[in-house]
Amino acid sequence: MKKALSLTALTLASLLAMTGCANPVDDANGSASDAPAVQAPRYKADPDIVAMLPKDLQDGGALKVGVNPDVPPIKYTDSAGKMTGVAPQLVEAAASMMGLTAEMELTTFDALIPGLESGRIDVVASIGDFKERQAQADFIDYLNAGTSILAAKSYKVDTATLMDLCGARIGYIKGTQQQGLLEAASKDCAASNKEAIERTSYKDAGTSILAVKSGQADGTWIDSPAVLYNVTYQPETFKSIYTAEKPIMYGIGFSKEDTDLQKAFKAALLKMAESGDYQKLLEGYGLGELSLPTMPINGGGPANG
Fold first, then answer.
1. What is the three-state SS of 32-52?
2. C-beta of residue 92 within 8 angstroms of C-beta of residue 125
3. Residue 295 near residue 269 (C-beta atoms within 8 A)
4. Cis geometry, peptide bond prior to residue 126 (ω within 30 degrees of 0)
5. Domains by residue range for the chain, with CATH
């Protein structure tokens, strides 16, 4: 399964700056103390799906799953120290259907794709699927994400256009596409003789959400799953005031060489979707409206297209 690394430092840096890698939580340390206790299903091995696996996995074994657990509710560390969330639970459930176990491996974000390429990990759970990343990995897309602006419950409007944000204090995660979108919106404000948007960059979404909660920012433009999660479980504190039209897909990543594993994994996910278990899992995290039950492969578009 191993192959030589092909990412140059420049290419890797550009990949890591894309949307879908921020930390969308209220808690800046990546924990999710307010997360719901969502239980993922477990299955008996399905012989038809097991037969799709590479020969060396058909008698059982373990999948090494790379996780950077700082993106609740997608992936995070719970109060017991276990890595969990939508993506790890989907991977664990699919693995059980394949007669395998899923071993979660703590991995930094910048080591996820190189880990697939080197064979150190078998699966990434999960990151944004963009055309640029598809040169290094394949993705089974399981979630329609997108980006939204999370604001304090007390913010002056419930629904905003970008022009309504002129003069507002809006946060973003450095290096994401929202940074450029905010810059362009601020220029439009100036061209209309309105106050520029006061923009502040943050290292991760957790920090930016804390800024909104503390009143240091009026809002923060982050990935939609984080916004839905916080609005659902802290409705007295937050609200969503804007959602961008451009969709983003979250995908479970595989080495481009592991086509048999990928096919078996997709079959397992589709069976979960058909049973309704996939939808129940998303709804447990407040993300039911973002479901993508067809599980397309490499359905994501360009990061800045």
1. CCCCCCCCCCCCCCCHHHHCC
2. no
3. yes
4. yes
5. 9-145+249-290 (3.40.190.10), 147-243 (3.40.190.10)
